[in-house]
Specification:
Layout lengths: L12 H17 L12 E4 L2 E6 L11 E6 L4 E7 L11 H8 L3 E4 L13 E3 L2 E2 L10 E7 L7 E5 L12 E11 L13 E2 L2 E6 L4 E6 L3 E2 H11 L3 E6 L8 E3 L1 H6 L9 H7 L9 E7 L10
Antiparallel strand pairs: 1-2, 2-3, 3-13, 4-17, 5-16, 5-17, 6-7, 6-10, 8-9, 8-10, 10-15, 11-14, 12-13, 12-15
């Protein structure tokens, strides 16, 4: 961001010094936020942390986001589809969390009015009846069928291949590609603003689920992530608007009561969506069997 510093010449040195000291004080005394590449928040499990990322100094039009960092080597991902689970109607995100018992549940992508999923969708290695979308080229994949180095990824079908006859991953959900590995924002600048849920792959192999706390332009969000969060390799957008939703298990929320500090993500996450609509498809995460549960330090 280009700053106009011409007013500094008219200020006495002491005023300039106090000006910068004030900025530093605000940065240090404000709520727990994050830098462009380092997330510092509540470590809720070995491989799971939740924090607040505030990019507003670099992106004035983007409000703070709840950032959930997940290590796929320690947490597994599961796609849930309401018909596959024998349900007559979709559940809202909190009902999904109660039903599955997953530590975390978030909306899995876009769907029609009849709740048919728009794009490829696989659960436990089986296609759940949907077909590849021709233009939405983001693909969340997890739990490789063969022995692979990464247990969960964000693929870009512009560059990456996916064999539907022999799917290389057991859990798959297709949606919009937002920001690709070249730094290109892959959505149009329409000016429409809504809540969003994003899934990003980081350069260290961890996945990041980002949930907005205020309505935002998807294009502006993509530009912000490109400029202010350079460790993100590529990002896809799941369903937005009233369908943008995340639920954290009561056990994880209770674990924060034994932790020091302010847990700023709790009111932001729970207050970002007034109503919870039915979601036909969600993605849940839970610890792998050989990993410890939530930390309660």
């Amino acid at each position: 961001m280009v700053r106009d510093n011409s007013f500094h010449g008219s200020l006495p040195f002491a005023h300039v010094a106090w000006f910068f000291l004030g900025i530093i004080f605000v940065m240090l005394s404000g709520p727990a936020t994050t830098t462009a590449q380092t997330l510092t928040g509540d470590q809720l499990g070995d491989g799971l942390s939740i924090s607040v990322w505030n990019p507003q100094m670099q992106c004035p039009d983007v409000a703070p986001l709840v950032a959930i960092e997940i290590d796929p080597d320690r947490y597994r991902f599961t796609v849930h589809y309401y018909q596959q689970d024998g349900l007559s109607d979709p559940l809202d995100v909190r009902q999904w969390q109660e039903r599955t018992g997953d530590d975390l549940v978030f909306n899995a992508g876009l769907f029609r009015e009849n709740y048919a999923y728009l794009g490829l969708l696989y659960g436990n290695g089986r296609s759940l009846g949907s077909k590849r979308h021709a233009t939405w080229l983001g693909l969340f994949v997890a739990e490789p069928s063969a022995d692979r180095s990464r247990r969960a990824r964000v693929l870009d079908l512009t560059f990456d291949t996916f064999d539907e006859r022999q799917p290389p991953y057991r859990e798959v959900a297709q949606s919009l590609m937002l920001l690709d590995r070249t730094g290109k924002v892959r959505v149009l600048q329409t000016g429409k603003r809504a809540h969003q849920t994003l899934v990003a792959e980081q350069s260290n192999g961890h996945l990041l689920v980002l949930k907005t706390t205020e309505a935002v332009s998807l294009h502006a969000l993509g530009e912000c992530l490109r400029d202010a969060f350079p460790s993100l390799r590529q990002v896809m957008a799941m369903d937005g608007g009233s369908s943008s939703d995340v639920a954290v298990s009561p056990l994880l929320r209770q674990a924060t009561s034994k932790m020091a500090g302010f847990h700023t993500w709790i009111p932001l996450l729970e207050g970002s969506t007034i109503t919870h609509v039915g979601l036909p498809t969600v993605i849940g995460i839970s610890p792998r069997h050989d990993q410890p549960g939530p930390k309660t330090r």
